[in-house]
Known about the structure:
The complex is a heterodimer.
Chain A: E1 3-10, H1 15-19, H2 24-30, H3 68-79, E2 81-88, H4 100-117, E3 126-131, H5 139-146, E4 152-156, H6 172-181, E5 184-188, H7 210-215, H8 218-230, H9 233-236, E6 242-245, H10 252-265, H11 277-284, E7 285-288, H12 298-306, H13 311-314, E8 315-316, H14 329-335, H15 341-353
Helix pairs in contact in A: 5-6
Chain B: E1 13-17, H1 23-26, H2 32-35, E2 38-39, E3 42-43, H3 75-84, E4 90-93, H4 106-125, E5 131-136, H5 142-152, E6 158-162, H6 178-187, E7 191-194, H7 214-219, H8 222-234, H9 237-240, E8 246-249, H10 256-265, H11 267-273, H12 281-288, E9 289-292, H13 305-312, E10 319-320, H14 333-337, H15 342-357
Parallel strand pairs in B: 1-4, 4-5, 5-6, 6-7, 7-8, 8-9, 9-10
Antiparallel strand pairs in B: 2-3
Helix pairs in contact in B: 4-5, 5-6
Amino acid sequence: MTVVDCAVRINPPDDADVARHLPGGWRQFLSKPNAIARGTSATPLYQTRPFRHPDGDLLIDAGNGSDPRLLSQQHLDRHGVSRALLLHDRARLAATNPTPRLSEAIVQATNDWMTERWLGGGDDRLLGSILVPTQLPDAAAEVRRAGAHPRVAAVQMGGNAIGKPFGHPLYHGVYEAAHDLGLVVVIEAGCDASVDTLSSHSAASPPTSYTEYHVLATQSLQTHMVSLIAQGVFERFPRLRVLFIGGGLTWATPQVWKLDAEYHSMRRDAPYLRRLPSEYFAEHVRVGTSPIEATSSPHIMQRYLEAYPALRQVLCYASDFPSWFASEPQAVAATLPPTWVDDVLSKNGDALLQRREMEVTS
Amino acid sequence: MSVIADELVYAVVDCDVHHAYRRDDFLSYLPQQWQRFHLPDGFAGGFLVPQYPQPGNTNKRLDAIPEVGPAGSDYELLKRQLLQELGIERAVLGFDVGFESGVNNPHFAVALCRASNDWSIDHFLEVDERLFGGILIPTELPAEAAAEIRRLAHHPKMVEILMFANNVGRGFGHPFYDPIWEAAAEVGLPIAIHVGGDIFGKSPANAGGIAESRLELFALFGQPGITHLTTMLTQGVFERFPNVRVLLVEHGFTWVPSLLWRLDEMLPLLRRECPAVTRLPSEVFREHVRLTCQPFQLPEAEGDLFGLLESFGGMEDLLCFATDYPHWDADEPDFVARRLPAAWRHKVMAANSAALFGWDAPALPESR
């Protein structure tokens, strides 16, 4: 059985590698020609994440996620991965850069860097994600531009640049473009945790430790999932699929059940819906498995997952290689009900990453 | 699925009832200087909550609204609808729902809390032996909150501390709130945290941006409480104050396995980030935290609530029945009791609460 991996993290080896793709004016604005990236004259392209694991966010010997050969050796070849969705790591907050047109330029340069460095190398296993300059009203144009590349499979929403839940109408232009091109929309843990976002990573309080940051990261995903469903995004874009990354296996079940229960009594708040929220969840939402939650025995997690059978078609293996919490396929398989393994490790991801373009009829 | 008996027999303790004052009864409890800040339709310099529409512009069952005053303000009506009709042995009253403690002006909040507590004792707690109460505290000024705890902790009808408003954007386990934990430990009362204290706009009510409808707000309601609980565990609150317990009221409970598994696996790093933490969070949680089970919601889609809970195990010792009277989504005892496994019933419906409040375990009645 081959494995489909819905989340592999990539980084540029240095900012200069991306800055080459910037228009000259922006390149000059950010750095001097021939300046050393992160040297005294160069402005970093990407925002630093506010919470970082003290032992490193990425596995030590994985080359910072910047080397396709290491990715092959250490993960794809080793684990029989037939297809992998590449997600931007350090770059993922680019859309929230407070200078709007600069955020657009950096997003575009990053997308161009990605297609050149990662999608042009002849490794058919690799599929790319593009970032979107969501602060700007014409953000969808970048989806159509960079998303035209045949090996791009996903739109990575990245940082929450508008400060609204991702189902908000301000985001719908991006979804329309993704829907037209058959691209998966990816929403990830940490998307609300930038100093440049108006939204919060966690309710009640910002995290005050890495532990809190990591544990509470599912809250963003829950808000965005609830918003996408309740705002009728899946009615408006009936072939859209949204992949949630970085929350693990267990966050969705209580949230979907809760949303169904509240919809039972507050139906009039969601006039766009024709079905139960859980039906939209099962059909349109996919959940990347990482980071898997540790339980004292695998039977415990199996029992938890089996409590909500719809997850069998929803969970998609996501290694999140080379993050510090990356999980190998065998480790994920051990947590699953045995009959689910093939679906979660292979079939669900395979179906998800099939790019299904809309046929444009005149 | 367990067979549901035609006639269930069980004792009931209700951990979440919302009583309310009629303004005319309340004003005299406020110092003169503050009385005019308590307007007939709100508070001057009060607070705002998000303006999501709701049917009838009320969140109460319509038949619980008396002719004069808000729902929960009429003792006779509450006695009939809650105690008599539902067969409740003991009920713990928690105001509606403690918003006074979160007004914008923290000095006003102090006055309102004192007045609320004094009013509650006179108008409800000392009126009926079945009624108990909580000490509402002005959380934004922890030293004042501690003083209020100490002032009333020894009243025989005060069985908990009501810690509600988070006006400072910090979890309740954060050191900012330590004076409250110290006072609670000193007087030996549990702290009850009702959902909703983070929606004043001073602390995020949920992650990811403002919820776009009441439906979404309610779907995400559990998030602040989860953060608050997380901070209690990440700051080692229960290891520093080992005789304090917490009752999470109306925050839900299906999220428990997910949160505690994640916290447990982070223990090695957590101990480096907070030296006060030494023990496994889930063990601390089982000892120190209880949760009310209202609204008791079964999955609409194909799903197994008890299978999910059993994967974590021990939830029958953690859940405490509550009606949430007089809200429109209140649970009646029979509704919950009929859906519980038989082995859970007495614990969830009465015994867990009794233990939390230091009462003798209620005897099973001969008939209901």
